[in-house]
Design goal:
93 residues; Oxidized Rhodanese, domain 1; three-stranded parallel β-sheet; 4 helices; 11% strand; globular
């Protein structure tokens, strides 16, 4: 139950947050994310929260790469530069 609430919160947060500093990046809606997750459009879902939070709950299929580890963990990212990368976090800072 707790996991469902956290995942639901992340979905809602992901789509209701529109930071002006990220305006150059497209913001997707719930249907687009579902499409990516079902595999009709290939994408990589990246949970940018700390590992402890990722371990507590995350969207199924997401990989965990906190911002401070992006350089070290870039090998987890697809080689094809056209593959969409979808990031989500808890939205603070």
């Amino acid at each position: 139950m707790r996991r469902t609430k956290i995942v639901s919160f992340l979905f809602v947060f992901l789509f209701l947050t529109a930071a002006t500093s990220l305006a150059q990046f497209p913001i997707i809606d719930a249907e687009q994310l579902k499409s990516h997750m079902r595999g009709t459009q290939k994408a990589v879902l990246i949970d940018a929260r700390p590992a402890e939070e990722y371990q507590q709950a995350h969207i199924p299929g997401a990989i965990n790469i906190p911002p401070e580890l992006m350089k070290e963990e870039r090998t987890q990212l697809p080689k094809n530069k056209k593959t969409p990368l979808i990031f989500y976090c808890r939205g603070e800072g």
